Amino acid sequence: MSWVATEQDALVRTLRSANPDAPTLCEGWDVRRLLSHLVQREQGPVDGLKDAVARRPPGQEPGLSRLTDRARSPYGYARLVDRFVAGAPRWSPMSWAAEKINFVEYVIHHEDVRRGGTSPAAPRDLPAAQQEAVWKQLGLFALSLRRSPVGVRLATPAGETRVAKAGDGVTLTGEPVELALWISGRREAAQVTVTGAPDAVEAFRSWAEG
Question: Which Pfam family is one of this chain's hits (predicted)?
């Protein structure tokens, strides 16, 4: 089984057992709305584009609101989970390129559900091969770090490293999933350490928080 299929199966189990009204790490989104996003992303790209153009605050997106409102009942929520299981149409890149497009997306949103709320779950003990699969895809996610005022290096406890921005600066150390969470903005929930010269760390943190 591919890693994207493995992660989708795990995410589906979590979604079925979660409280749909529980908060997630995504500002303004509860579990039900995050699930609506997953379905819209793969099966309703036009509505997703309309939501992006509308530029409404998180939790007020028109297209997502319609999906979310239809999933208010237990039956409606279960049906929405079933739609996510069905996945994107075969012609869609979300289907035939799912390993590259959806795998890390699923990992991040899975942790959004697991670690949201007042009693966040601990990081999962994932197989080393799955962490390695996330590591291999971090390059694209790390492009945003090129705007950092100092150099940035990514590192794992196993000793793997990758330069996100050349130059002296800071090192972000954590398991690949934790690094993916940090880079995508889930910084308080991510178990990542930032090290380097004090002035570099201060400059980097100021940039990251801004």
Answer: MDMPI_N
108/161 same-domain check: no
pLDDT in tens, 3-18: 999 999 999 999 999 9
* Average confidence score pLDDT of the chain: 95
Query: Which amino acid makes up residue 47?
Result: D
Statement to judge: residues 144 and 202 lie in one domain: yes
Among candidate residues 80, 114, 148, the one where a domain is terminated = 114
Q: What would the pLDDT profile of 98-150 be if each residue is shown by its tens digit?
A: 999 999 999 999 999 999 988 899 999 999 999 999 999 998 889 999 999 99
Three-state DSSP state, 151: strand
Integer Cα distance of 101 and 103 in angstroms: 6
Percent of the chain with pLDDT over 90: 89
**Other CB atoms within 10 A of residue 75 CB:** 9
The residue range of the domain holding 140 is 128-209
Q: How many angstroms separate the most distant Cα atoms in the chain?
A: 54
Q: Is the pTM of this model over 0.85?
A: yes
